[in-house]
Write a structure and sequence with these properties.
With 660 residues, the protein is of the alpha+beta class. The chain is built from 19 helices and eight strands. It has five domains: 148 residues; 192 residues; 105 residues, Sandwich (Immunoglobulin-like), CATH 2.60.40.3340; 68 residues; 99 residues, Cytochrome c-like domain (Cytochrome Bc1 Complex, Chain D, domain 2, Orthogonal Bundle), CATH 1.10.760.10. The strands form two sheets. It has a five-stranded antiparallel sheet with strand order 1-2-3-6-5, with no helix packed on it. β2 and β3 form a beta hairpin. α1 runs antiparallel to α5.
Length: 660
């Protein structure tokens, strides 16, 4: 079931490329460089209609997967009523309803665009209003997919849908350009150097040799137009890599609790595969941008110089052997990129169909089950471990003699009834005869079913147990997950940091080829500083993830009454009664305890809360996470702030009061 759903999602992503990616490449990248009269935008309609049909079929598969168990046994009218109710009353259902309408609207305007582009006497371009309308329908299709995804659930419909939508748009534009360059004929099938005279001049293609091209790359003018297209694709690729890296970073932070949790899930392993393929994609794109495209630019420039030296020559002066050779290498690289894009989409299809390990469930108590299975007495224990882990212990003994049983094999299965979890079960390892242990994660809160099958020789027994896991508190989650929940300022601060870091990478990549020219070194240095500044701010947010969280404890006279006993019991011995860092135990501490009067103006309440919760490394400040409840820590945060401001006010009054 999981693989079928992943295949449907993969088909949907490929359909989106055919529907919107290829037209975006054609009208935005290819056609502006094509000579007048080449036309043939009508070739887009076939792939676009296939892509639209695939998207609708994948939508139907999603509906069957979600509502299938409920639809079984119902009459047709009841099934229709249930589907309509789902689409009308649920957030995901409403976006499901939008998707076919968005696909239909896009196809209508694509037909209009093709007719305008291919009209006789036209230059193949589209009016700006028509381009904008077509792009708007494409964005609606993307929104109908992104708003029904994991990001909309884990981050929030508005912010999560926006981030995922930007991620999908960048993928469609880049992958559409690569797919377009891989399938649109722009260079005849020929070996490097074939079709040239001994003098290096281009010879006309013989009848039946190669394929028809939109513009002949074997001529100087055609090669220059191909170069323009490749430079546009390279710029789109660079921008897409920056956007995909930034949005992917945020999505991974929201979807992955920790690398250890991810390693035990299909989601985490699919993400690792996607990152490996993406790295290969970036490596080939970098080779094209920094090696092949500059080589083509030099070769085309040399051909242009030959034309200038022979202005009265009859026919073409030829390109020499360099241009065809570079074009051959570029075509192979582009096709390799397109193949890797398909692999990335396949991994993404799996990612979207299993639940991300974003908030693992925690056991609150130890659960133990004892039962007799055939000739064996079996005891199975689940107990809470550190960092949201779950410890498993299986003990098997002979029922009559009590002797431990060394099993030949153990098969473990973990899942939930309501979700396809995609959990990779842990391996139970024998720690002593008849006793097997393992540690794992329950990657989502809720009711879990754990199936255990035991085998020794020809004897096989199986049993199932159920365990309830609760939510991990927000303040115990991954740092950037907390940042994304920090009201508006948290995500805004993270977005700003990523924008600054991305701008730094853009500057470095843009100026690196001319590093030794005037201003190149300074520009690269400034780009490095931009990048480091963005990374520093991301690290700062990760170190203080609750910085932008609002204190749920409202300021009131009762706060002091509730918090003062907590402060006197846990804080006053070091920080002093008034918070000046002059408590009875402060004298021997290095560094000294914080003076709240000094620090209150430099830290937000969320920062104080994080310090109280987790302490400070390298200081005597302990962590109170396991000592005080979350509400008590927020109470102390409010009280500490009030102490600091009261101390500041007292200091101002003492300075303004004249000496007697």
């Amino acid at each position: 079931m999981m693989w079928a759903a992943a295949s449907a999602k993969f088909a949907q992503l490929v359909g989106l490329l055919l529907l919107a990616g290829l037209p975006a490449f054609w009208f935005g990248v290819w056609q502006p460089s094509a000579p007048p009269g080449t036309g043939r935008a009508g070739r887009l309609l076939g792939p676009a209609f296939v892509g639209g049909a695939v998207i609708i079929i994948a939508l139907a598969a999603d509906l069957i997967r979600i509502l299938g168990p409920l639809l079984a046994g119902m009459d047709p009218s009841g099934q229709l009523a249930l589907v309509l109710s789902f689409m009308r009353n649920t957030e995901v259902g409403r976006w499901f309803a939008v998707r076919p309408m968005a696909v239909a609207g896009y196809l209508v305007f694509l037909i209009i665009s093709v007719r305008v582009a291919d009209q006789e006497g036209g230059d193949g371009s589209l009016p700006g209003l028509l381009k904008g309308t077509l792009a708007s329908w494409a964005l609606l299709v993307v929104a109908s997919i992104s708003m029904a995804g994991h990001a909309a659930v884990n981050i929030g419909p508005a912010l999560g849908g926006l981030i995922d939508g930007v991620h999908v748009v960048a993928t469609v534009l880049w992958a559409g350009s690569l797919l377009g360059m891989a399938v649109v004929p722009w260079f005849q099938e020929a070996e490097p150097g074939r079709g040239e005279s001994e003098a290096g001049e281009a010879l006309p293609r013989r009848a039946g040799e190669g394929r028809a091209t939109d513009f002949e790359a074997g001529s100087p003018g055609g090669a220059r137009r191909v170069l323009q297209v490749l430079e546009r694709v390279s710029r789109i690729g660079l921008l897409a890599v920056l956007v995909l890296s930034a949005s992917g970073f945020v999505l991974a932070a929201a979807h992955v609790f920790s690398p250890a949790v991810a390693a035990g899930s299909v989601y985490g392993r699919s993400l690792a595969l996607k990152l490996i393929l993406f790295a290969g994609l970036v490596a080939i794109a970098a080779m094209n941008r920094f090696h092949h495209v500059p080589a083509l630019r030099r070769a085309v420039g040399a051909a242009k110089d030959r034309e200038a030296l022979q202005p009265h020559a009859t026919g073409s002066v030829g390109l020499g052997s360099a241009v065809p050779s570079v074009l051959w290498k570029l075509r192979r690289s582009v096709r390799a990129e397109a193949a890797l894009v398909i692999g990335v989409l396949a991994a993404t299809g799996m990612l979207t169909q299993v639940w991300p390990p974003s908030t693992p469930g925690m056991l609150t108590d130890t659960n133990r089950w004892e039962q007799r299975l055939g000739p064996w007495d079996v005891a199975f224990t689940l107990s809470p471990g550190p960092n949201a882990t779950v410890r498993m212990e299986l003990a098997v003994a002979e029922a009559e003699s009590g002797r431990p049983v060394v099993l030949d094999g153990i098969r473990l299965g973990m899942d939930m009834e309501t979700h396809v979890m995609g959990v990779v079960p842990p391996k139970l390892v024998m720690t002593e005869p008849g006793v097997y242990e393992a540690s794992t994660y329950l990657i989502m809160p809720g009711r879990w079913q754990i199936d255990v099958a035991l085998r020794k020789g020809e004897q096989e027994q199986a049993f199932s147990v159920f365990a309830d896991a609760r939510d991990v508190p927000l303040t115990d989650r991954a740092p950037l997950q907390i940042v994304l929940k920090g009201r508006f300022l948290g995500p805004l601060g993270l977005a700003f940091a990523l924008l600054v870091a991305g701008a730094g990478v853009w500057i470095v990549v843009h100026w690196a080829p001319v590093f030794r020219e005037n201003g190149g070194m300074a520009a690269v240095a400034s780009g490095v500083l931009f990048f480091l500044g963005g990374v520093f701010w991301i690290v700062h947010l990760a170190v203080n993830p609750t910085m932008y969280m609002a204190n749920p404890v409202q300021a009131s006279p009762s706060v002091a009454e509730q918090a003062r006993p907590l402060y006197e019991a846990h804080c006053a011995s070091c920080h002093g009664e008034t918070g000046r860092g002059d408590g009875p135990q402060a004298a021997g501490l290095r560094p000294p305890p914080a003076d709240f009067v000094v620090h209150v103006g430099h830290h937000r309440e969320g920062e104080f809360f994080w310090i109280i919760t987790h302490g400070r490394r390298g200081t005597a400040m302990p962590a109170f996470q396991s000592v005080l409840t979350e509400e008590e820590r927020w109470l102390l945060t409010r009280y500490v702030r009030e102490l600091g401001f009261a101390g500041r006010e007292a200091a101002r009054e003492s300075r303004s009061t004249p000496d007697p």
